[in-house]
Amino acid sequence: MASEPLSRVQSHDLEIGVTEAIQRHVARPVVLHKPISQRRLDFESRRPRWLRECLAEAIGVFMYVFPGVAATASFVTNATHPLGVSPFGGLFQVGCAYAMGIAFAIIACAPTSGGHFNPAITLCFAFWHGFPWKKVPYYILSQILGAFVAGLIMLGMYWPQISAMSAALIAEGKPLVGAATPASILCSFPNPEQTNLGFVFLTEFFVDFFIGLVIWACIDPANPFVGHTTVPFAIGLGYAVMIWGFADITIAANMARDLGTRMVAALFFGREAFTYMNYSPIAILVNIPATLCATAVYELLMRDSMGIISKGHAMHEDGEEGLLRHFHKSGMLDEEMMRSQALRGVEIGKRE
């Protein structure tokens, strides 16, 4: 019995585990999985696809919101450190938490659901790339649920620190909702001096536009500068860059992330989480038109559909015949023929 685990590993084999991820890149083989039973296959075939996709979206949002709000909680609850500076990080830490959380969410959940994790991205996929409109409400509700659960669990884990901070603010006669308050751990609020909501709107719009453009460029199969293994980290880094640059002047950057955690804030700190300075509509809704505008710019001005077709990622709607018609119409086929004839003439001249 004791020798069985050793006998199944041949000389120079790698034991099953994380090493499976490198089995295509090393000479040494990885021990095979145990045989897959018919019971397992039957179970997997009976799983409702819509449920798997919705759960993957909820878990994906949870995976980046949870470390993001936890990093924010660590920063905010320790902001009054005696040294005058929190030793537990700042906006850089928060940006890194969201960036790595997004990358891990894409790696873990995107193979199941497509990895939208943002209502605006779901709407853009439906508008531009044929994602079924009937799935849109389910995806959006799942994304909001993921953020809501992440906010609840984080609040429970940090409740002693948040309670102490809340008690100190109440004793000083200060509110619990607003910038640098317990509620701001969960969702964003404008700074007291940001009374011009038009300025706040523009900040949110351009931040969301930037993130949307980065996402659309990263998932473009014709883009030669992003490999499939680097997409999760490139998207996460795009999100982090905006946090580092603009979180200090109030951004939300994702409807699901903001609305889900804002509901948690309303449950524990009152409905002022939605009414404070009339800001919540900007945080919740601006992400959608901004991302639609960003993807429109990419689709209408920067997309290279011919490059996608040539790499085998898509085909012409009318098949090969439609592609040939396009070549004739654009003159590309004639140019190719002339080029091939010229090369043939050069080769004949060399032979003579």
Automatic annotation (TrEMBL):
The keyword Transmembrane helix applies. One of its GO terms (molecular function) is glycerol channel activity. Keywords: Membrane, Transmembrane, Transmembrane helix, Transport. Its main location: membrane. GO terms for cellular component: plasma membrane. This is Aquaporin-9. Gene3D superfamilies: Glycerol uptake facilitator protein. It is a multi-pass membrane protein. Belongs to the MIP/aquaporin (TC 1.A.8) family.
